[in-house]
Amino acid sequence: KKKKKKKSGFGKRSFFHRVCFLVLTFLELGISKEEALEALQVVRQECHGDAARTAGGSGTTRKCTALELLEEEQAQGFIITFCSALDNILGGGVQLTKITEICGAPGVGKTQLCMQLAVDVQIPECFGGVAGEAVFIDTEGSFMVDRVVDIATACVQHCQLIAEAHQEEDHLKALETFSLESILSHIYYFRCRDYIELLAQVYLLPDFLSEHSKVRLVVVDGIAFPFRHDFEDLSLRTRLLNGLAQQLIIIAHDHKSAVILTNQMTTRIGQNQSTLVPALGESWGHAATVRLIFHWDNSQRISWLQAFRPWSVQMTRRRSDPESY
C-alpha cells in the first residue's frame, strides 16, 4: 500500500507540501491558472520522471451524437443508496459521470449517506452494482471507520442472503472476494485541513485515479468548510470554487466516476423572514448536476431534489426511519 501511495504522489509528504506551496503562491500573487498548472507540471516531472498531464486531459474535442450519449449514460449504471425512495427520485441511484451535491444541516445524515455510497459502489455487478472503488476526501474529520464497518458488514450479509436464495454460480463466486476486508481496503481516505490542501488534492487526483482505474466514486465531504473562514476576498473565493467545480466535472467525465459533494446550510435574511439555503452562494449552486437537500420534519427525514430551472418540477420523498443511513 505504501508503494502505491508513493507512486501516485499522495504518499510523499515533501511532494505534497511543495504542491501546497505552489497553490498558495499563485493564489497570493495572482498568477493565472495556466501558469500554475505549468508549475505543477514541473513538480510532477521531477517526482514522477515522466511527462505530466494537465488537469484538462488531452484537450481534444469529442464528436458524437445525442443517441450515443444516451446509450453511454444508460450503460454506465447507478450507485444504489439502499433507500428506495431516494433511489426513485434520483432515477435509479447516484449516476456515474455526474456531480451530486447533498445539502443539509448538521446531523441530517450527509456523511452517513456518503459512507453508505463508498460501500455500495463496491457491490459486484452480478448483484446490480458497479464493482468499483471509492475515494473519500474529508475536510471536517467526520469520517467514522466504525460506522463504515457496520455498513459494510450489513452490505455483505445482504448479498449473502441474495446468493443463498438464488443459488447462482456468479453470485457465489463474487462473494469469495466481496468481504469486509476487501471493502475497507478499497476506500481511499484523504484528510484535508484547509482549502490549500483541498485544492492540491483535487488537482492531483487525476494522477491517483490513473493508478487506481477501478475508482467509480469520489466523495468530498464538507466542500464548504475550508472556504467559509479566513476569506476576505469573496471574488477570489468564487474563482477558486469555480475552478474546483470545473476540475471535478473533468474528473467525473474522464474517469467515469460519480462525484458526491456535501454542503452546509446557511441563513438567508429576507424582508420579513429568514430561510436556510445551501452555503457558498448562487453561482456555486449551478456546479452540481443534481442537488439534494435534506432536512428534518419531526421524526421524518425529507429529501428535496432541487430544480435549477423555473419550469422544472421539484420532487420530494419522505423517509420516516431516522436510522436509514
From TrEMBL:
Alphabetized, the UniProt keywords read: ATP-binding, Cytoplasm, DNA damage, DNA recombination, DNA repair, DNA-binding, Mitochondrion, Nucleotide-binding, Nucleus, Phosphoprotein, Signal
Q: Which domain of life is it from?
A: Eukaryota
Q: Which GO terms describe its cellular component?
A: mitochondrion; perinuclear region of cytoplasm; Rad51B-Rad51C-Rad51D-XRCC2 complex; Rad51C-XRCC3 complex; replication fork
All residue ranges annotated as the RecA family profile domain in the record: 75-265
**Where primarily located?**
cytoplasm
Enumerate the subcellular locations listed in this protein's record, separating them with semicolons.
Cytoplasm, Perinuclear region; Mitochondrion; Nucleus
- What are the boundaries of the signal sequence? 1-32
Q: Does the keyword Cytoplasm apply?
A: yes
Q: Which family does it belong to?
A: Belongs to the RecA family. RAD51 subfamily.
What processes does the entry annotate via GO biological process terms? Answer: meiotic DNA recombinase assembly; reciprocal meiotic recombination
Descriptive protein name = DNA repair protein RAD51 homolog 3
The question of whether Nuclease is a record keyword is answered with no
Pfam families on file: Rad51
InterPro entries associated with the record: DNA_recomb/repair_RecA-like, HR_Repair_Mediator, P-loop_NTPase, Rad51_C, RecA_ATP-bd
Native organism is Buteo japonicus
Q: Name one GO molecular function term.
A: ATP binding
Which PANTHER family does the UniProt entry name for this protein?
A: DNA REPAIR PROTEIN RAD51 HOMOLOG 3, DNA REPAIR PROTEIN RAD51 HOMOLOG 3 RAD51C
Note the PROSITE patterns from the entry: RECA_2
